[in-house]
Amino acid sequence: MIKNILVVEDDVVFCKLLTRFLDKNQYRTHDAQSAKKALSLLEKESYDLAILDYRLPDDNGLHILETIKRDNKVGKVIMITRYGDEEVASKAIELGADAYISKPINPDELLTVIRGL
Amino acid sequence: MKLSISPNVHLVEPGDFEPADHWYPRALNSNIHPLVSTFLNLSHHQIAERYLRLNPKANLDAILSILKYQPKYFRWSGTDMMHVTNNEGNRKLTLIETNSCPSGQKSMPLLDFNYEQGGYRRLIEETFKDMVDQHDESGALAVIYDKNPMENIGYAATIAEVFDENVYLAQFKNEDTDPPVQFRNGKMFVREGEDHWVEIRAAFRYVTQEPWNRLPKNSRTLLLNPIEACLAGGRNKEVASRAYDEFNEQFKDKGIEIFTPKTFRNIPYHQLQSHFDKLGGSMVIKVPDSNAGQGVYTIINQKELDVALSELASDPDELYIVQQLIHSNYNEGSHTKDTWYHVGTIPDNKGRSYAFDLRMMMHATSEGMRPLAVYSRKSRFPLNQPLPENMSSWEVYGTNLSVKGDDGWSYADERLILFDVRNFALLGLGIDELIRGFIQSVMAVYAIDQNAIKTFDKEMSFN
């Protein structure tokens, strides 16, 4: 059962809109706009789900995914890829992501993916 | 809503407005103070007549003509003012700056609980929509911004509802090397996909950091506000100061004037010390195109001046604005009438009184300029306590809430004072101060807009 979610995405507005949407759907959310902030949050808390953007200002989402899998701090992972980037998507699945979703993101579709995990 | 249709662009759809996303929680759950509500509902005639009782030498027709003025360029604005008094107890609201992308909606209690989108909708419906309806260009609608996502998502969602069409919400940062917003021959385009750009007919603009680097003059895409409003003084304190002087000259026999702290313009670096000495050992230094409290130095002693001079030394060719400091209890001026002090907040139960500013957001409607949102911000350290050693005077005089951090801009909203039932009384302001503040603000908008007309209409006819 997914209850708390970490959203890692460098676009502040994206984070704000998505976390608000998830909050309204009864999830508890934290957000990070950089890999550094995400890793610091992961040191303090475990999450049921991480939604990771591939492109971050200081690293990429795949590296965070590797860390998450190694440290076992997150139950499930959804990778956000750029506009049909199949290569990143397949790499993410290979590294243990549970799903991927391509931008643009319709929050309702993302909710369906989360509920299906 | 579709998130990230391209990097830093989202598509906002009708029905996306969520009040909790566009107000601070404490503003959303507040009740507007009845006095503020009364002020916001006053007609132009009531405001002008009352102002005349407060300033018997003012000319009624001149006040009314300014209140009913239709700005050509500067149709949405905000001013920051301070409540000051002199040694004779003569209280005034002094204009500190005028802003062409003012924040304020997220801090404003709802005027009418049945009007859920509050000031967002009033601005879009009564100002932006009329402008767009009269603008003969094709394309979509957009909100472009570089700060304040809370309000800008709110504006995008309101525009989507009012026009019943999707709105592109695009971040347009100064430092972005591949921005999702482009101008081609004066027309704006927003990136929708990898190589697909959408033409924009009109955009609500909240681009604050050196916007002249990115926005063209004579934009074919309608902008609220266009860059001309910034260049004529909406984002340059030196140009604004000149516009205020011209206004005061024009209206000197009408008994009205824009009141600002004594101001010296175009001061070179090497003359800052002599101005400090001439002003009695205190002053404010401003970088002309700074904003959000950045590039403003309050100076109360030689040590603070030395710190400012060392920071400013990196740009020796800059010309600065120097203003007379508005004083606290512990830093006094020497002249009887021309020295101004912060009136400050009503002392709290520990006796502390703080400097505060008054932000007044206004918009141009079919009937003229109307107030839209008001709030105040207080300083961190009280006026009536001695400044601890090594504490900067900015802590006493600085009221701006914008804080630039690693993750972008944030707001120290604990110093925000809402104009609600609980907090408004703490300011010690009455309806007469709000009227005076509004008249000061409208005069400033008039001055800057007239400056824009004088500067850019002539330039356009020359071209």
Automatic annotation (TrEMBL), chain A:
SUPFAM superfamilies: CheY-like. This is Fis family transcriptional regulator. Keywords: Phosphoprotein. InterPro entries: Bact_response_regulator, CheY-like_superfamily, Sig_transdc_resp-reg_receiver. One of its GO terms (biological process) is phosphorelay signal transduction system. Transmembrane segments: none annotated. The keyword Transport does not apply.
UniProtKB/TrEMBL annotation, chain B:
It comes from the Bacteria. This is Uncharacterized protein. The lineage of its organism: Bacteria, Pseudomonadati, Bacteroidota, Cytophagia, Cytophagales.
